[in-house]
Amino acid sequence: MKDYKKMTIYQIWPRSFKDSNDDGIGDINGIISKLDYLKDLGIDAIWLSPIYESPNDDYGYDVSDYYSINEEYGTMEDFDNLLKEAKKRNIEIIMDLVANHTSTSHKWFKEALNNPNSKYRDFYFFRQGELPNNWLSFFGNSAWVKNNDEYYLATFNTTQADLNWENPEVRKEVYKIMKYYLDKGVYGFRMDVINTIDKKEGLPSKNPHLKGYQFPDDYIIDGDKVSKYLKEMNKEVLSKYDCLALGEAVLVTPESAIQYTNPKNKELNMTFHFDLALLGCGELGKYDFRKGYKFTIKEFKDITSLWQNSMYDNGGYIGNYLSNHDQKRPIERFGDIKKYYKESAKALAIYNFTLYGTPFIYQGEEIGMTNPKLSYKDWKDPECFNSYNAMKKMLHVPSFIAKKIANFVTRDNARTPVHWSKEKYAGFSNVEPWIHLNPNYKEINVEDNLKDEDSILNFYKKCINLRKEYDSLCYGSYTDIQKDYPYIISYMRNYKDESLLIIINLDKKPREFIFDGKYKFKHLLTNYRPRNLVSNMIFQPFEAHVYKITPIT
Ligand code: ISL
Ligand code: CA
């Protein structure tokens, strides 16, 4: 059995990873050319954001054919080759399974539109007549799209039509896709918005007494039948392979995450949660600026503690991440790019790699890539365009402010090309990339990071190795130390007779930390200088340490 609890997983968003054929778009052969780099970094698996055929309205999360590869990225042969080359290096490939919806260019949907008697009508949600309900989509529109005299449900972009999982034939088709790729040798799936596959019976309006579109929330998230479908998927597919089922469970609660991932329920192996990503956002998500994107370190700590304790104590399991293709680069939010750039990038790495759960790295994070300064002319992301309009229409935000907010939060921030070198176009391509390139590639790039002993990249390698060496980081319990202290996060990880102590100052100011208990200690890792563990310590901004400790008896 492969052990996903010991793995480090690296997310590739293919369009911006590496271009091999000079069209300015990342591709499969580009990924193959960087496998040695990834091997050297020490990762065990790659989660590949979607590479299936797609009109790219949502950059691959709108699939038009699950059995072919987007030609901009290569061919099925290239993909098979990627699998083979990755296997050679002991790297697993995890596919993105986008099965809550298909593109409206998918043949099922086209067939459903063209033929009123088609069985594919029941693959989706079509309703005649009036607007069926007041649901707001994730991307800020009505969740219903009008097409002639009917509507179809699309809870994300208007060209992503929701599949009707109630229909057993839909589920069968999904299982068929999964088997096709598992039989090819992929290690598993990251399942896109998998906890939204059950829509509330009868599709009633949400809070009908309120004016305007309402986010359907519990009417589409974590519905009662999600677990039923996952159990069936497990029985029909997952249980037959040595594979990983990772759920992107959007806005999931700890209770539901435990339900999905506790092995006794036979559903998924792990899930992501959204609470850190949404820190400082208003209740409608990242375009809801009403909290000013402000949060405290104490809130950050409380979220950590809630998830760590509830998962470990109840047999649940999560993937830990700070960045992905849906969030701007987090170093600006949780760290300090001006004064403590390297220190904070490394402190955050220590955090992400020492928690209970499998750590994820998003491409470019390992070299400390930052957010570019975007203008509205640089936008590519459909969520950004739609949410910009929604801010103006629904929240009556003036255009120039809406633009500022969108520049600040758009997913485009995380989707600029990876900086491989100082060369023109950052070594990503020999031509102008498809999306804005962050001009700071001359200062932040893989080439320089590799050369510099003290680089963020070399620090990531150390973090990855630490997990390989210390089982307590992979399997151990989690215990908060000084839970209420508002600046420094500290916790212990225990497994069998091994104990690790982690202390991280998350603040931009020096902070004092009082620690009681007498221990023998071994210093394992720091972003400053190794120092003794004593009861009273002043930690510099973002100073972080990992110790192995044994009680003095
Ligand atoms: O980005 C978000 C936070 O503001 C989310 O609402 C995001 O849309 C949600 O996490 C679901 O994401 C996944 O499904 C989307 C796709 O656009 C994202 O890229 C994907 O990660 C629809 O398929
Ligand atoms: Ca290319």
Secondary-structure map:
Blueprint: E1 9-12, H1 28-33, H2 35-41, E2 45-48, E3 52-53, E4 65-69, H3 76-88, E5 92-97, E6 101-103, H4 107-114, E7 126-128, E8 144-147, E9 150-153, E10 160-162, H5 168-184, E11 188-191, H6 224-236, E12 244-248, H7 254-261, E13 270-272, H8 297-313, E14 319-320, H9 331-334, H10 341-353, E15 358-362, H11 382-394, H12 399-409, H13 446-451, H14 456-469, H15 471-475, E16 477-481, E17 488-495, E18 498-505, E19 511-514, E20 519-526, E21 536-539, E22 544-551
Parallel strand pairs: 1-2, 1-15, 2-5, 5-11, 11-12, 12-13, 14-15
Antiparallel strand pairs: 3-4, 6-10, 7-9, 8-9, 16-17, 17-18, 18-22, 19-21, 20-22
Helix pairs in contact: 7-8, 10-14, 11-12
Residues 19-21, 23, 25, 27 line the site of calcium ion.
Short description:
This protein is α/β, with parallel strands linked by helices and 553 residues long. The chain contains 15 helices and 22 strands. A hairpin with a 6-residue loop joins strand 16 and strand 17.
- CA(first)-CA(last) distance: 39 Å
What binds here, in terms of ligands, is:
6-O-alpha-D-glucopyranosyl-D-fructose, calcium ion
CATH topological fold name of the largest domain: TIM Barrel
Structural class given helices, strands, pairing?
alpha/beta
Q: If classified by CATH, what would the architecture of the largest domain be?
A: Alpha-Beta Barrel
Largest sheet geometry:
8 strands, parallel
β-strand amount: 15-25%
User: Number of helix segments?
Assistant: 15
Proportion of helical residues: 25-40%
Radius of gyration: 23 Å
Average per-residue pLDDT, rounded, comes to: 97
Low-confidence stretches: none
